[in-house]
């Protein structure tokens, strides 16, 4: 507890400095941070691969993504318009009362507690999207390391701390904290914590959400808690491309041994093509090379969840899966009728691993009821011929309510980092569907608007000064300049 | 309970239509709504004045503000760029994997439950900012009428329903519901409710916040719960203009019989000018005409709060106040030393009515500790000479953390409706400091981003179609177009 208290004083001190810091200094720090991490890649990649049981090729790709994210946020900060500077000028002549000068911009919230994810030891961990978007906003980060990859986390933390020192930022800008669930609770309930970002299980995310709402001063929790990412397949579409559809589905289901937040754990297919599609998917899954899961707990939970589902009489197992050697996650596939699926919530709970449930529907008319029953998702995918989609307006209209991203081609795995990405959906996929944890808008989670009324020019943040010394895009009297 | 269930089905049906409706139809409906309300002004003004005990002049002004807000949102909707349309175009040639087409925009959340406020029977009630910004976003509104002005609420509700009919919108677009606390709880805990807006007491807002977080699917609650809106006065500033400062303070304190969310219930003044300033404020307060408060409950609570505070030994009463005839709210002023204020949270709790606490500080160096102790506020105001402000960077930096709007001239009462306004501060002033309930950004409370990946052009919302048929400002591949 003492250590946590001390850490927060440092973080608060850093916050009071960061929030008035020159944007170029923060942008430069982020560049330096990417450089420092890139500089240890030769040791980092094998360490992360060893601790996560993920292949080095995958880790190398993830490192590229991580560095790309950091550099993207560095650009966003350097450009500067993300603060949404808005100026309503004074009008001393207005009747009945003079109009004041009001200037508004987004300002950082304060120290942010970030929890890393086991399934992305780099891109959603120590220097991942949550950490980087919080730092970009001007919020110090208290990073709670994931115990599944402690060495990786320490190495990245050292690189970040080097960048903090080299760039002349206050030492409280970034802190690396190791510990268990209790440490996490202490961190998020500290009065100086102002927001929380989390990627992981529903249970973990919901516990943080509840703890933070019960605080004397509640704070926002941005928890990304997982999703079954359903795919809905229409009849003509499927009957014309059974093999290709099966390959795409099986590939996305087993990607990363099914340990992504966007693996499609549910697929809805028409009864007419059921036999051919089932056979094709099972054949694909049998060909997919089994690989180790991230750690023992996840592997144990995976087979435990399959064991629990095996007692459900409504399920027919198309491909059963038994624990293999070490941490191997073998793919599994179950089938259930649409009417049975509608009756049982357990059939849409996430099983973290390469397991899919195929739901067989009788006719297109069933899709509305299926969409209605669906819980909130990060993504929903619809595969149909143009005419099938065009006549399904009511279904698509409903389905949009259940997700943050709606796909019509390709698979939900593979989340682009860009301007238009939305990685956050209705509860229970996340605790705040109005936020995204991927893409440039992730920075918006850690800020709030502040309006300055008749503030002397010299005291205003540069973004709001009359001369626009930062040269950013601003809204002045309702018009973008 | 049955009635509530039926209402929500209508609201949900309306939502599924509204969210794909032409923006001009919604903008036209808002214009029509303003026209319908304006059309009943001759009966509405006396009714609202009678029920609220507010003078007709004040109600007339409030009606103007209400109509202005509705028309502003009509313009925002008609212009259309508020949806933040963002397009990242596909790149089929990208290596190692082709880049998909992703298009993102803000979409309405669903049915919104709005609670009216007693202190603004028009501008924060039936057709107030919460209702209008939710409708503008495309969210149906279930409006829970405030029992303090039932006739006013019914009249405005009928005008809105007329506009719904005339404009050809679904009848579930707006519903007017009367009832007590239990009805409110039923409304916000209904599975189809997707957000809540509230203006009122801390107790009421916090109860809704807790109820909505405890739902199976938690939903956002935007509760504006009040504030003491402290004013900090520097020594040179005050000593040069004692009378004018006293007049400004007393005027803002007693405006609307102290029943605004922005009345400055706290003022921090330097010890050197204590005597002169106290005398001037008391003189001003004695001259202010006593007026009736909104209703019996508020009047009772006001004198009850003063009675409770009268037992505090640390307080010296500069102007005591006794209940007068009927609902009269007589102004009261108390004085406490900065060191005593720091020790007692009760001295910064909102007393709804024309009561102020004057906190006397010894020196500028005390200001940091005072700002640190302060709870979250809608506004903070600082009155100082340029040189006093310029040397107070650390104090101002801290103070910004405690409010949504920071003023340097004028008084916090009088909240401009515009682009740069921020009416929402850190807890407990509101439940979500990242939102505003006044100004164009109020619409952002009732939306979430949705990304469409590789969606066929014909199915895309118009705002995202390639040809930009709405002609709105969009971000394409990172550049504003």
From TrEMBL, chains A, B:
Residues 3-399 form the Aldehyde dehydrogenase domain. Pfam families: Aldedh. GO terms for molecular function: oxidoreductase activity, acting on the aldehyde or oxo group of donors, NAD or NADP as acceptor. Keywords: Oxidoreductase. InterPro entries: Ald_DH/histidinol_DH, Ald_DH_C, Ald_DH_N, Aldehyde_DH_dom, Aldehyde_DH_Superfamily, ALDH_KGSADH. CDD domains: ALDH_KGSADH (cd07129). It comes from the Bacteria. SUPFAM superfamilies: ALDH-like (SSF53720). This is NADP-dependent aldehyde dehydrogenase.
């Amino acid at each position: 507890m003492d250590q946590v208290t001390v850490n927060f004083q440092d973080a608060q001190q850093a916050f009071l400095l960061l929030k008035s810091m020159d944007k170029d200094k923060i942008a430069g720090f982020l560049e330096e941070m990417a450089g420092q991490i890139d500089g240890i890649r030769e040791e980092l990649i094998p360490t992360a691969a060893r601790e996560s049981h993920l292949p080095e090729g995958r880790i190398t790709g993830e490192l590229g993504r991580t560095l790309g994210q950091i550099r993207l946020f560095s650009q966003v900060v350097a450009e500067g318009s993300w603060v949404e500077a808005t100026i309503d000028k004074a009008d001393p002549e207005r009747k009945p009362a003079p109009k004041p000068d009001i200037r508004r911009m987004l300002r950082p919230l304060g120290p942010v507690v970030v929890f890393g994810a086991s399934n992305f030891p780099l891109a959603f961990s120590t220097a991942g999207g949550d950490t980087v978007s919080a730092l970009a906003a001007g919020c110090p980060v208290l990073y709670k390391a994931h115990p599944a990859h402690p060495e990786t986390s320490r190495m990245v933390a050292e690189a970040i701390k080097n960048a903090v020192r080299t760039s002349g930022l206050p030492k409280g800008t970034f802190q690396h904290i190791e510990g268990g669930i209790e440490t996490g609770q202490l961190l998020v309930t500290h009065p100086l914590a102002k927001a929380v970002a989390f990627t992981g299980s529903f249970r973990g995310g919901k516990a943080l959400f509840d703890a933070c709402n019960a605080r004397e001063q509640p704070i926002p929790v941005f928890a990304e808690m997982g999703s079954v990412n359903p795919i809905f397949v229409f009849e003509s579409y499927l009957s014309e491309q059974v093999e290709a559809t099966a390959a795409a589905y099986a590939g996305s289901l087993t990607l990363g041994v099914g340990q992504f937040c966007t693996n499609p754990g549910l697929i809805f297919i028409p009864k007419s093509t059921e036999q051919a599609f089932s056979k094709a998917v099972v054949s694909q899954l049998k060909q997919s090379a089994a690989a180790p899961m991230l750690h023992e707990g996840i592997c144990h939970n995976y087979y435990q969840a399959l064991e629990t589902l095996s007692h459900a009489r409504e399920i027919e197992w198309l491909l059963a899966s038994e624990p293999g050697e070490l941490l191997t996650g073998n793919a599994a596939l179950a089938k259930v009728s649409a009417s049975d699926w509608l009756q049982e919530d357990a059939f849409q709970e996430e099983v973290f691993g390469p397991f899919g449930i195929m739901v067989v529907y009788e006719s297109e008319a069933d899709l509305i009821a299926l969409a209605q029953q669906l819980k909130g998702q990060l993504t929903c995918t619809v595969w149909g011929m143009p005419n099938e989609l065009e006549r399904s307006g009511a279904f698509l209209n409903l389905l949009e309510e259940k997700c943050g991203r709606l796909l019509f081609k390709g698979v939900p795995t593979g989340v682009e980092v860009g301007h238009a990405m939305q990685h956050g959906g209705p509860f229970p996929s996340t605790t705040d569907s109005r936020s995204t944890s991927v893409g440039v808008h992730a920075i918006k989670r850690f800020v709030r608007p502040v309006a300055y009324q008749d503030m002397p020019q010299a005291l205003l943040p540069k973004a709001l000064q009359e001369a626009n010394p930062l040269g950013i895009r601003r809204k002045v009297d309702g018009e973008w300049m």
